[in-house]
Amino acid sequence: MSDSDGESQGGDGKKKDFLYKVKAFKRRTMHAVAKTVSKVEVTRDEEYTVVHDKFVDVDARVQRISKSVSDYRAALQNLAMCGAALADDLLEVYETDSAMRPLAVMFKDAHDTLNEKVLPPLDNNYEREVVEASAKVAARFQGIKDDDGRRTRYISDYDHYRHKYTTLQQSPKKEKLGESIRECEQKLNAASEKYHTMNERLSARLRTADKHKGTLFNEQLMALIRSEQAFFQQGSNEFDKLLQASLEKKFKQA
Description:
Layout: E1 7-10, E2 13-16, H1 18-37, H2 46-93, H3 101-169, H4 178-211, H5 218-246, H6 249-252
Antiparallel strand pairs: 1-2
């Protein structure tokens, strides 16, 4: 679908027509001013308002989840990195002939395994199945928000030409304004088609988003469970060995 704000075809693809954008901005600004200083009929769609309000709520959840999955990934990476740094620092504490040095070495080995063997493949899966999948949901919602912005501009155009057409029809000089009236009517019809087409399509998308809000992150949740289970289980295996070693008499008596 071409952007309804106006596009011209260029050799390197679709490009916004600068002159059109300037005229559209001027027209919409004038219409906004007119609404504040005179009685201009404003198009309202209460059904759209209801479904859009619901969408805003769902979108807020989507944004929070998208941020949280990225934050959680960073936290796990930071946990592993800080654990490795701690293991290095502890190893430096124990001299070569220290009785506890073997245990410190095992502690470092456990963290090295976590960082070098356990985390990398899990992190790749987490990025693909959780982070990127969540970002795709957010991107779809951003597309809806972009269309909502276009719809707002279409309403402005539609109401502008409706008001202008009515004003021309009611003018005492109507008989002399035939060409202006015909031109305005054409623009009104075009603006009406743009607005009503967008409104119908976007209303359907908003209803769909609300209907399926409970299933948006099903796959991500399952992937997150798999990722966490693997991370903590494999990490636990390494530290179970370490715990058993720490219970040996030689370490307890060191």
